[in-house]
Amino acid sequence: MRIRSLGLALLFGSISLCASCGDAEAGERPVLRFTVIPDSNNTDMVERLDPFARHLAERLQMPVEFVPTPDYNASVEAFKNGDVQLAWFGGLTGVQARRAVPGAQALAQGSLDPHFKSYFVAHKDTGLTKSEDFPMGLKGRRFTFGSADSTSGRLMPEYFIRQHTGMSPEQFFGRPNSFSNAHDKTAKLVEAGSFEAGAMNFVQYDQMVREGKLDPELCRVIWVTPEYVDYQWTVHPKLEDWQEGLTAKLQKVLLQMDDPAALEAFSRPNGFIAAKNEDYSNLAKVATELGF
Description:
D-Maltodextrin-Binding Protein, domain 2; 2 domains; 8-stranded mixed sheet; alpha+beta
């Protein structure tokens, strides 16, 4: 594995891999560059994505490079500008990227992504407990979203807040919106009592509890949202300029991926299933309705 600095990865480093080719050959061939939205506060992202990058390089027989980005918006911009040709987006960022790049396609999603949900969590001292009904007891509480462009940490929680209360989040909580910028950070801020409550990705909450990184008695799940569609791999139309049929080949590699090490970074142990742009049409309507 070679580590490089390139474009948006200048401050972060990147994974650059080429299966069965040397540096000279790699320089003469297109390099498939991919990014992943930074939805958790991970400092070891390059290392964690190494098995996935190696898997793609071996199966596609072409150089593959991971390009980290500092935030959700930078991931979309990198895709929009063609600096990356493949991206693991959340539902909202995928919609934004495909709107900006005609011909971009949603290729694959995790088997759980058509049935995604958010957790509303609260510190134990609030006295709030889990209910099937929307927790109106959150009114006036110190509440944090995740990233401003997160589907499970902002867009859908805001949608459900408006739907159940008839108020904007600012009106319901009585203060400007707060953003932690990462799901795991939301959980830890609520656990510490820095915020009384928050909204986050259910997969990351469950994983943090399972790994002993979060105390579920301090940071309690008080409401589970209805299901919605979320994460997906989106591919740039540039791939077909490189090689006719490369998009379909890439999709096949993703759908057949069964290497636990390659899937681990995405918390998708059951692998990926096919996705298409139309799967996100309802989410796109919500984004438009809320002005995203």
